[in-house]
Backbone:
């Protein structure tokens, strides 16, 4: 049996984004992850699984950097999202990252210690 | 000058989703909208604009249905997202829709009366 896949989206809590702002950042991250991996076997498998997504939290930029670095070391697709700064945040503020889509177990090895957002 | 584009994501407030759940639903909607319109001029223009997204609210399913119907009448791309029901909601609950990506003015004609989520 093929192994399960997912996409993890990791949002900063220290920015105190509104629920709508957080949702928009998560949407940016998910679209970036999908478009970047389009056409890869990992993307196809994830699409086939119904595009499972999980939204997780980190306390701040250092913890987010750690997740991005760990994902990179694991060879997982990783995208960071910098806010355009038109509304609540300073331009260029990195609000979140997407890890995957990819094998659930590999993604858990990077994000498994994080709590749900 | 080419006209501005956007993607509107419209979430139900009556489901009282957690911020993470709402973010995941918005991410589902955004990916669905992107993949469905991939390769169209509207998608290309939106990508070129930096994929602007706005997250809006409706009070419940009837108001969401009205938005979906109005978007359909306007010929705008529209996707609804039904939750898999693995966590907080009953399976099949329609949580949100995506309108666009498309011309901002056309999307505003459908969603312009809605408040930010």
Residues:
């Amino acid at each position: 049996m093929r192994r399960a896949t997912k996409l993890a989206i990791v949002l900063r809590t220290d920015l105190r984004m509104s629920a709508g702002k957080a949702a928009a950042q998560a949407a940016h991250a998910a679209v970036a992850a999908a478009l970047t991996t389009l056409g890869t076997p990992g993307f196809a498998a994830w699409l086939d699984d119904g595009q499972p997504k999980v939204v997780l939290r980190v306390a701040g930029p250092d913890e987010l950097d750690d997740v991005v670095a760990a994902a990179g070391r694991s060879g997982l697709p990783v995208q960071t999202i910098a806010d355009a700064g038109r509304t609540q945040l300073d331009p260029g503020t990195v609000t979140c990252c997407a890890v995957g889509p990819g094998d659930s177990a590999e993604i858990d090895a990077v994000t498994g210690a994080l709590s749900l957002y």
Observations:
- Strands of chain A lie at 5-12, 53-58, 78-82, 94-103.
- The CA atoms of residues 35 and 43 of chain A lie 9 Å apart.
- Residues 19-37 of chain A form the longest helix (19 residues).
- Chain A touches chain B through 31 residues (CB under 8 Å).
